[in-house]
Amino acid sequence: MDTRYIFVTGGVVSSLGKGIISASLACLLKARGFRVTIQKFDPYINIDPGTLNPYEHGECYVTDDGHEADLDLGHYERFTNIRTSRANNVTTGRIYQSVIDKERHGDYLGKTVQIVPHITDEIKRNVRALGSTGRFDFVITEIGGTVGDIESLPFLEAVRQLRWEMGQNALCVHLTYVPYIAAAKELKTKPTQHSVKQLQELGIQADVLVLRTEKHIEQDMRSKIARFCNVAPDAVVQSVDVDSIYRVPMKMHEQHLDEIVMRKMGVPVEGEPHMAPWTAFLSKLDSAEETINIGLVGKYVELQDAYKSINESLFHAATYADHKVKVRYIHSEKLRESNADGLLGDMDGIIIAPGFGQRGIDGKFVALKWCREHDVPTFGICLGMQCMVIEYARDVLGLEDANSTEMDPTTRHNVIDLMEEQKSITNMGGTMRLGAYECRLRPDSLAAKAYGTTEINERHRHRFEFNSAFRDRLEAAGMQCVGTNPATGLVEVVEVPALRWYVGTQYHPEYSSTVLSPSPIFTSFMKAAIDYKHEKENKK
Ligand code: GLN
């Protein structure tokens, strides 16, 4: 069949969850047997979010092909089990860079280069790029930002043109907000009407409206919105707040969002989507009674999006293990030996978070020493793994000044060091060791048992590496290097087998955990945390 293009725009306010709606729709279409992909257009000038501070943009997600991407791509993968790539996330910066490169190359043959048509053509080319591979029945394109932003105008103009060119093969889903005014005890539709009008002023008629709301919107109010907005009454769908984002696909299906979209695009609707594995996950979520407490030691505790993928991975693992998970964020800058018992004492498992730079690093060492001494299941990810190595070298090997050269460039005991090829790099953007790399695990390792194989592939995002010059000494002292990259010999996984579950991964397994395919190493960590919890309870 022809590739169909679905555009998802947002109005009224940001943070309505366009990513979740896009991912839910993709999830349903995929469960109907279609080949689906989702891409995100971000209207900012950074080439990618890789150079953005987590305060600006939450977590930076990484694709298999090493693209530093918007965190919505994480939702796309978690909801659909499809792998995304560089082509799935395009910013204004990338569009301009490519247009300017073409201008310098002389491709525009002396023409004045303008937003319309040159920038909009480049956007359109990028929208079509995934579809033109012939690999997809549906390409869902989420336009970042809110209708009315100056930044998103060229993207919306491109959507307008594409809808005109593609006819029935293109469709616009517009997500808006219906606020509840507590004092008046009323839901209000006016912001939605304005937002749809604003979109109309740009030449785009929404085909489907998804109304975000805290309270149920009655049919007559939805019909009123339909009437005011030139949308069919059955194409006004509501998205009421739910306790888990993973309930959204079924909520959308109950209101026939998948069917509405297919019908409008002339795709025959047959049968039902195969959502059984998904609903099995949801029933585990419903029936979980016991809670597992996981401590996450990091410096961005006040930002819920900074550790998005880790949170979701913990949630997947706990749900499959029939538990609710409660993540306590422990501020690494506030952690001292004197308060470690209080902050870490109730935890069933501890994660030492990824990160960059010196700030908060000492708290991570305090946590790691405490975890080793109390033999609590401990999982170090990226910087967390590097801290495991440093703390072990300091405390067990007695190398007091052991460090990463990221924190102390002059240390004699550079147990974590810059790779040779990184030393000449001066540009910050897109130059880390990024994307999926092979890792070979020692067959007797905890990691190999967790994955059920010795050959794995996981994604990276770091500059510094385990320094193999210290490998023998660390191994002799009990820290085993159980995972290495076959091509380079770089150490990717360390473990301390004398402890119950003490594992560090240089890679980020959280990027590849999805609802239907949870991360094996998170699953193993969760199981260890649950066993530990039961052991503590039995001792009482
Ligand atoms: N700062 C460390 C490095 O660059 C770790 C990065 C991370 O945790 N993602 O190697």
Written overview of the protein:
This protein has 540 residues and is of the alpha/beta class. The protein folds into two domains: 276 residues, P-loop containing nucleotide triphosphate hydrolases (Rossmann fold); 251 residues, Class I glutamine amidotransferase (GATase) domain (Rossmann fold, 3-Layer(aba) Sandwich), CATH 3.40.50. It has 18 helices and 23 strands. It is globular and about 70 Å long. It starts with a strand and ends with a helix.
CATH domain fold name of the largest domain: Rossmann fold
Side-by-side strand order of the widest sheet = 13-12-14-15-23-22-21-18-19
Count of DSSP strands: 23
CATH-defined superfamily of the largest domain: P-loop containing nucleotide triphosphate hydrolases
What is the rounded distance between the termini?
63 Å
Poorly predicted segments: none
Bound molecules: glutamine
> Structural class of the helices, strands and pairings?
alpha/beta
Q: What is the number of helical segments per DSSP (H or I, 4+ residues)?
A: 18
User: For the residues shown, what is the average pLDDT?
Assistant: 94
Q: What's the CATH first level of the largest domain? A: Alpha Beta
The description of the largest β-sheet is:
9 strands, mixed
- Helix amount, in percent? 25-40%
In total, the number of domains comes to 2
How is the quaternary structure best described?
Answer: single chain
Shape: globular
Radius of gyration (Å)? 25 Å
